[in-house]
Amino acid sequence: MFAHRAWCHRAWKPSSVVDLYGLVVFTLCLVGNSIGWVGIHREHHAHCDTDRDPHSPYHKSRWAIQFLSYFNQVKTKYIVDLGRDSRHLWFYHWYWALNIVWFALLFAIDPALVGLWIAVIGLTVFKLHTINSLCHRTPWFLLPIHNDDTSSNSVLMVLLNINNGEAWHKNHHQNAANYRFSQRWYEIDPPARIIELLAQFKLASINR
Predict the structure, then answer these.
(1) Residue 53 in contact with residue 124, Cβ under 8 Å?
(2) DSSP string covering 78-116, please?
(3) Segments forming the whole domain that contains residue 84
(4) Under a CB-based contact definition with an 8 Å cutoff, are residues 62 and 126 in contact?
């Protein structure tokens, strides 16, 4: 909802309170800071599946995409807007301090919570990077639904990511500025429904 659809593609705009919530949750999930994540993803769309794409399985190994994406260099031209946003800059500068405090708090409450949170983070990071890798040049056994581009809606990836709608990846690449990744009645996309609900309560606006 936030890093991908709101901050990267500006498909919708959360209210100040909702945006702050998104920044807190995104930061604590350790998938990277918001500015870096957006920069890499915008570069991906600008050079999709060419040798300039930072995470294309046509030019990089899936192993590298899955585990080494944190080391991609972010280019300034893709993050000019967020680099001027004081809120994103604050979370960028305090990224590691916030996570250290969060882990310390979990440990103080119950050490078992640290293990639970690591499991949550691990699943989140794994799912995120499998989208980047496996929804491009999709292996046949994941039942890809292709069109004339290099991305796909993978049936099995959709089932594994049914809570976030991200595996309607071909749909997204056809219209990246659309807050909805679903195009057909049977395509489940929970984040789009949440965005619409937020808009109804004047907590968000949708760019159409």
Answers:
(1) no
(2) GSHHHHT-HHHHHHHHTHHHHHHHHHHHHHHH-HHHHHH
(3) 2-206
(4) no
* Of 183, 129, 177, nearest in space to 157 by CA: 129
More confident of the two residues 147 and 120: 120
Q: For residue 129, is pLDDT > 70? A: yes
With 0-12 CB in 10 A as exposed, 13-18 as middle and 19+ as buried, what is 183?
middle
On whether the CB atoms of residues 72 and 55 are closer than 8 A, the answer is yes
Report the percentage of the chain scoring pLDDT > 70.
99
Q: How many domains does the chain have?
A: 1
Q: Residue 180 burial (CB < 10 Å; 0-12/13-18/19+)?
A: buried
* Lowest-pLDDT choice from 42-46, 134-138, 144-148, 204-208: 144-148
Give the integer Cα–Cα distance in Å for 88 and 74. Answer: 15
**Rounded to the nearest 10 degrees, how much is the dihedral formed by the CA atoms of 55, 56, 61, 67?**
20
Identify which of 75, 183, 66 has the alpha carbon closest to the alpha carbon of residue 136: 66
Task: Find the helix or strand (DSSP H, E) in which 152 lies.
Answer: strand 152-154
